[in-house]
């Protein structure tokens, strides 16, 4: 069992939450997390780069000059790749770089990423997070109280517009609900703050 400290918004430790590692796969599957990160990056690529082959260049196909007797090198038409304005020899074509990852693998990769944060003591459980009105200063104060000055992923149980609006001007703070979590965002943030309700959801308990 892992013991995770529970903090309030003032940065004071108020409780401890016990979490069974088996909920998150019992061990960190590094290879699977790597696959998920690579797939995430690949799916961001547009793959829309395109250059023309000599067959796609508009112009005459007439030979530039006769084959022999001119003293010049042999040439065909002006669409040749070695000539200015000609087509490309190995032209780029649109392609799909996307990688499909089965749902079970995505879930297992996310579980391993969360477990890595738990084992590395980079995950904080936050109790009583409430923002009455959109104020960036409020969220900045909470992060300062928790002594988090690096990139952080804040996980909520459900959408809260005030928290979203209060966090959008903090460049190092990303806000997600549990349903939106993915392995890439978990592993690429230095710290992870999870509300107590969201933590219960991740552990399969009712919030």
Summarize the structure in words.
30% of the residues lie in helices and 15% in strands. It contains six helices and six strands, in the order ββααβαβαβαβα. Helix 3 packs across helix 4 (161-167). The longest helix is centred in the middle third of the chain and has 17 residues, at 103-119. The chain is elongated, with a radius of gyration of 27 Å.
Question: CATH topology of the largest domain, anyone?
Answer: Ribosomal Protein L4, Chain: A
Mean pLDDT: 92
What is the CATH architecture descriptor of the largest domain? Answer: 3-Layer(aba) Sandwich
Strand content bin:
15-25%
Major β-sheet annotation: 6 strands, mixed
Strand order of the largest sheet: 2-1-3-6-4-5
Stretches where pLDDT is under 50 for at least 5 consecutive residues are: none
Could you name the key traits of this structure?
2 domains; 207 residues; Ribosomal Protein L4, Chain: A; 6-stranded mixed sheet; elongated; alpha/beta; 6 strands
Layout of strands and helices, then pairs:
Blueprint: E1 2-7, E2 13-19, H1 30-44, H2 103-119, E3 123-126, H3 136-145, E4 152-156, H4 161-167, E5 173-177, H5 183-188, E6 191-195, H6 196-202
Parallel strand pairs: 1-3, 3-6, 4-5, 4-6
Antiparallel strand pairs: 1-2
